[in-house]
Description:
The structure holds 2 protein chains of 2 kinds.
Chain A: H1 2-15, H2 38-43, H3 56-66, E1 76-81, H4 83-86, H5 94-97, H6 102-109, E2 111-119, E3 131-147, H7 149-179, H8 181-194, H9 204-226, H10 230-242, E4 247-263, E5 270-284, E6 288-299, E7 318-329, E8 335-346, E9 355-367, E10 370-378, E11 384-388, H11 394-397
Helix pairs in contact in A: 7-9, 7-10, 8-9
Chain B: E1 8-18, E2 25-33, E3 38-45, E4 48-55, E5 58-66, H1 67-70, E6 74-82, E7 90-98, E8 104-111, E9 118-128
Parallel strand pairs in B: 1-9
Antiparallel strand pairs in B: 2-5, 2-7, 3-4, 3-6, 6-9, 7-8
Amino acid sequence: MRLLLTSVFLAILGSAIAQPTVKDTSITLDILRAPVSPAAALAGIAPSEVEKPTDPTAFMISLQQATNNFSQLPKSYAIDFTPGLIFNSQNLTIDKYLLNTFKDNIRQSLTFSVAIRNLDIDEEDSLSRKKTKLALGVKVSILRGHLETQAEKLLKEIGELQSIIINQAGDQIDSVAETDTVYQNARANMRMLVRGDANGVVDTIAFRHWQSVAVERKEKIAQDVLTNYSDVTAQLRAKAADFKIRRVGWKLDVAGGLALDFIDQRFSNSYVAKAGGWVTGGYEGEKGFTFLGIGRYLFNPDKIFADESGVIKSAGISTLDFGGRIVYSYPQSRFSLSSEAIYRSVLNNKQVPSTWRLTLNADYDIGRNRKLTFAFGRDFDGTVSKAGNVIAALQLLAGFGSRKTIK
Amino acid sequence: MPDNESHQSTIALEDLYEVSNSGDLVSLSVRTGARGQKSLTTVKLNRTIKVKDVNGSIDKPLPLGSGAELAGKTLRIKTEITDISDETNDTFIDVRITGGPNEYRHKVEKTVIADNDSVLYTADIEFFTR
């Protein structure tokens, strides 16, 4: 760690030129993240307006309402749906939900998004023609990471408590029921009635009556037995409340979409108005290192990231932006580091040059509430800034981790 | 279905299932839910354990025996479902038995009142022949 620290500081000190500048801190890597709903973003519909049905009924109701009972195209409508979750997903209990195989990841995360917007007058169109915007998008998590160790441990403990309930308490419930006359009488009547009369006709009403007697009695017996397990059920509840899903490890998400404009709302008169593609990947450690990389391609973006001053118009423009973030933070470690880099470019216009930005923050706890800190930044315009107390503490730095007398 | 203060409730399923007096294999599957919940299941035939502490659903049909072997015996299913999902408070078990003259399918469900509550499902299904 001493070597790493010294190398990092020396490298930074060597390259940094003190030029105090005011940096725009609002631009972070998060600006490149894929939108929640690619289609809605490309069609200009707010994320809060996107319908997200979770079962087939909600899916059909959403479509029915948006289309006025399937009789017309909606004025403005966006929907995100995950077929693997909408259909046949109710038994997706936590054990399956947490699976991290390629097949399960695709099935649980492949989300299609559709957005439609009818514009009577399009402000972006100089001829003010009527337009229908139709956007289609897709998102998928190829790698989702695995459950963090603490949550895994909690899940195992919940399972152990559940096992006590179904096995130990379960056996007691069966034992009590075997000698309970009310229950046994109800079961005997059910047994007799289910075979029917001489013609095989079952008295359904009588059967249902004795069935409900057996159910009520069994639930009473079970509840009485479970009162002896109140400490187990209390622990179960507490552990369930503590359980939170946090996935760690390798992650990779891909998203993309395109928006078509239909001029004068005619199907035969359309063009690709916007398109976008996003790749987000990285490794999230439970502690220690975490790194993230994002790449983004946009065609006809609303705002060109690399062109802050608005030199060029976005029509026909393609942009490519990417960046990364690395964070090192360990509870017992005295050293922490975070760095973020962003690169932005316009692919098919040379008026705007590609630019990049780098920020780096490092600190080392030297004890007694004192820290060595260093911040380094290079902004998109090439200006470099640095801050911190590293230079003032250089003499102290020389003695890191050593008990030798410094001469 | 009484609830006690421990936030643990119980749901019972009491029934009979006709099997043919033959060598036809009778099988069981148990779907548990809802999405994101934690469930654990043990299945017995009378007092004999068929499977113990199964996490989640029993999707692959579990062979129980032939109709002739099963007649007069009781299938006992115990499933504990704990609400750990942020999405829903619903819980259910869906029992399916095949191999008799008719397929058996019965779903019982409960929505827990408070987050993190648990439900113990007990199902006692006796096999009979005519």
